[in-house]
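Here is one chain, start to finish.
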Amino acid sequence: MEPAAPIGRGAAIFGCAGLRLSPWEAAFFRDCDPLGFILFARNVDTPAQVAALCADLRASVGRDAPILIDQEGGRVQRLRAPHWREFDPPLDAALAAGTNAPHLLALRAQLICSELAALGIDANCAPVADIAGPQTHPFLRNRCYGTDAASVTRAARAVADAHLAMGLLPVMKHLPGHGRASADTHHDLPRVTASLDDLNATDFAPFAALRDLPMAMTAHIIFDALDSDAPATQSPAVIDYIRTSIGFGGLLLTDDLNMQALSGDLAMRTSRALAAGCDIALHCKGAAEEMVMVAAAAGDMRADTRRRAQAALARRGAGKAVDIAAIDAAVSALTQGKEPRFG
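Its structure:
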């Protein structure tokens, strides 16, 4: 048996400030040795620049650290034209495609993954397994894949499988379900009052069906049925439910700790989340003083976190070869309501 690849030490994933890694950032990342990194629009200019930044991030920790991005397609995608493809919002595309929605979204995912892999990005914060409802806040609604548990499950599975087939890690979000939130967690803390039976039949169902995926991200939402005091990210009761009842056994990341649904300073937000059972603290802003606080509060990965991280990273791979021109044509055909033809 080959020895396990190194995964780092720190229980955090960090962003960086700009288009290039600063000497301070390189030294900080070397010292705290986080699990990986995440890129945002502020880190993106040209393909060559992004590839160089990815290489420098990995060089700072001396290993093949995972590099994440939010490239959902539609409103939330950090890579934009003219260098990368633009897509309609997932919900708009899925509703227009009808029964072809899983196939269309999987093909889109293949195109996205091919672009990410070319840059050295090997994890994408998708699929979005939240269910769009009439109360879903606009910041999330058209990022969803459907309006019922069954359609979301089918589409999210297709998207996740496409990522894995292309050698990238899918990061499912937002456990245990964000669709009932009528507030934007970037600014407010939503409260969901639905019964546990209703949640199990709807919001939680897609995540239970996809519980085998390697990585997932939490929701900063209070679920009264499980814990009326703490948001899911910081609730031992909710994290336990995610592990035991929903059955997710993979690596569990917090959503961005800078979001204002959470209270307290960054050290408090981090320590509460990891004490509740989250594996990895996600800090996206790239602010130096904040990263120092998060790294200190997160500390080293626990033994169980290390096992889950090792298992997740082992699912990265070279990916299958695909005919990009044929996939582009198929996406175009499905978007126009036609059946695609291959070969």
